[in-house]
């Protein structure tokens, strides 16, 4: 292996082949601090050609490759196993915005670009890149593509798959495929782009992408509604869609418990209500007319919902700062729950019409099996995507509760299955849900996935142990 590492050093420079334990440590543990692996080395190539050359060396030496972007993934997909035989391939040095074409409404970027930097580049060109999620300051476009990330604007703009027009990919054999096409229409055979998106690095390494841009809305306005039940939130969503149409760009659900944790762990943050309410909905409108029009629309929506007794209290932000403060509450839930302690995450999707029933039934089943366990439910209600997270009962040691993860998963995922939902709506499978998915996908679907993996990566070197 010394020979292999020397060849890697000759390609990237010795500084970019890390082998010391301290240097590698940040790349070996996942964001949640739940999974730590070992690696032969962490390699940091500078561009797509270096990625291709390194992957070719790995294929020749039969060294497994774990691609990594911002390492913010929540399913332990971006870290190696404990064997110490793989290299972590960090894409973060591939950070160039390659081109912006405002007439074609596209931006071409390296895979290691940070999401927020891509949003900012689009804004500077008078356009919008709409993917938005709480980790946007550190996750990368490559990771967003590899996980087909969702976030808070899917309702209007779609997930990462829908935002991508073209890809550049390094195959497991170290060949570079240039599919960087900025076309809205291209029916020339199998869609390789869609195959790599959502593959979590198991089929190849994404090195560049052409992404869609959109016109900037004239005004973005946020409202926070207090509600009694999740069913009322679903009814409010329907009213908002009827009144606002495509202008409704976000609709997030947050339970009282999720926001109580935010205000507990981030005491500077406050809810704009004097009383507590069981549920909250955060709505965003992106208006193509004016701020006045957006305010009038949201105010009309809220007063109609209050007249129907759907909403018990509401605030419409009157400034960008107020909008930001409301979104901050939402975006700090994951951090607050992490600060509270270890918990069991579920990232599920359910037909929107069944959300209330799903939560009610699942809450009851869990309460019977694990008395006192605390359900923290929030998420992208407009997409039918709930983060149904479960914390230990008050006073119980977190580690002791986590030991029951499999039994808790069984209750939640079986319930998801009964409602014809998905056990991973936006985070992917990684290692965490690799075995779990085998219970819920048909043999045919699993076999076809295996056939694709075998055809593209016959040596099984791309992110082994993840997804399949
Ligand atoms: P990593 O974590 O580095 O990698 C994720 C997966 O992609 C791994 O399997 C890795 O091997 C693979 N990969 C990375 N780069 C490449 C590449 N160039 N080529 C091939 N494979 C690659 N996700 C959502 O969908 N919606 C949310 O709202 C959301 N909110 C979050 C909030 C917080 C606070 C945190 C910590 C995470 C959140 N996530 C969310 C999860 C995470 O941010 C996303 O999955 C993100 O897309 C991962 O990007 P990354 O660059 O960090 O990827
Ligand atoms: C979000 O929507 C993320 O904020 C994280 O997908 C979800 O912390 C979670 O479970
Ligand atoms: Zn989410």
From TrEMBL:
PROSITE patterns: FAD_PCMH
This protein's UniProt keywords: FAD, Flavoprotein
Entry's Gene Ontology molecular function annotations: catalytic activity; FAD binding
FAD-binding PCMH-type domain mapped to chain residues: 35-216
Cofactor: FAD
Record bears the keyword Lyase: no
Claim: Iron is one of the keywords in the record: no
GO terms under biological process: respiratory electron transport chain
Gene3D superfamilies for this protein: 3.30.465.10, 3.30.70.2190, 3.30.70.2740, Uridine Diphospho-n-acetylenolpyruvylglucosamine Reductase, domain 2, Vanillyl-alcohol Oxidase, Chain A, domain 4
Family: Belongs to the FAD-binding oxidoreductase/transferase type 4 family.
The name this protein goes by in its record: Hydroxyacid dehydrogenase
Organism from which the protein derives: Noviherbaspirillum denitrificans
């Amino acid at each position: 292996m010394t020979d292999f590492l020397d060849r890697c050093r000759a390609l990237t420079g010795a500084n970019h082949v890390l082998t010391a334990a301290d240097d590698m440590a940040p790349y070996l543990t996942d964001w949640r601090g739940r999974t730590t692996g070992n690696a032969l080395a962490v390699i940091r190539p500078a561009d797509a050609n270096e990625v291709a050359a390194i992957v070719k060396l790995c294929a020749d030496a039969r060294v497994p490759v774990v691609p990594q972007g911002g390492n913010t993934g929540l399913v332990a997909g971006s870290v190696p196993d404990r064997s110490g035989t793989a290299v972590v391939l960090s894409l973060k040095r591939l950070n160039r915005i390659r081109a912006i074409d405002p007439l074609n409404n596209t931006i071409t970027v390296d895979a290691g670009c940070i999401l927020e930097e891509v949003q900012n580049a689009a804004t500077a060109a008078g356009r919008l890149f709409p993917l938005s999620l709480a980790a946007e300051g550190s996750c990368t476009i490559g990771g967003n593509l590899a996980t087909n990330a969702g976030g808070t604007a899917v309702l209007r703009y779609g997930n990462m798959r829908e935002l991508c027009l073209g890809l550049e990919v390094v195959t497991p054999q170290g060949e570079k495929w240039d599919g960087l096409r900025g076309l809205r229409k291209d029916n020339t055979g199998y869609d390789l782009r869609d195959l790599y998106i959502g593959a979590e690095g198991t089929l190849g390494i994404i090195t560049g992408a052409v992404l869609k841009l959109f016109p900037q809305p004239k005004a973005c306005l946020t409202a926070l509604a207090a509600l009694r039940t999740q069913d009322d939130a679903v009814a409010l969503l329907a009213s908002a869609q009827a009144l606002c149409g495509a202008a409704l760009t976000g609709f997030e659900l947050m339970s009282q418990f999720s926001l109580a944790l935010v205000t507990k762990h981030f005491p500077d943050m406050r809810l704009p209500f004097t009383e507590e309410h069981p549920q909250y909905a955060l709505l965003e409108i992106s208006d193509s007319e004016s701020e006045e029009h957006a305010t009038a629309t949201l105010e009309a929506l809220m007063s109609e919902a209050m007249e129907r007794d759907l909403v018990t209290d509401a605030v419409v932000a009157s400034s960008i700062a107020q909008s930001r403060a409301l979104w901050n509450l939402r975006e700090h839930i994951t951090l607050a729950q992490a600060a509270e302690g270890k918990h069991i995450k579920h990232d599920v999707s359910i037909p929107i019409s069944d959300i209330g029933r799903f939560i009610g039934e699942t809450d009851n089943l869990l309460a019977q099996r694990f008395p006192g366990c605390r359900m923290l439910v929030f998420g992208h209600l407009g997409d039918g995507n709930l983060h149904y997270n479960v914390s230990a009962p008050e006073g119980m040691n977190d580690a002791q509760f986590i030991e029951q993860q499999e039994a808790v998963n069984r209750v939640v995922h079986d319930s998801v299955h009964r409602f014809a939902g998905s056990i991973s709506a936006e985070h992917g499978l990684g290692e965490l849900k690799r075995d779990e998915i085998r219970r819920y996908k048909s043999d045919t679907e699993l076999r076809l996935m295996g056939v694709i993996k075998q055809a593209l990566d016959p040596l099984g070197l791309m992110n082994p142990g993840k997804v399949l």
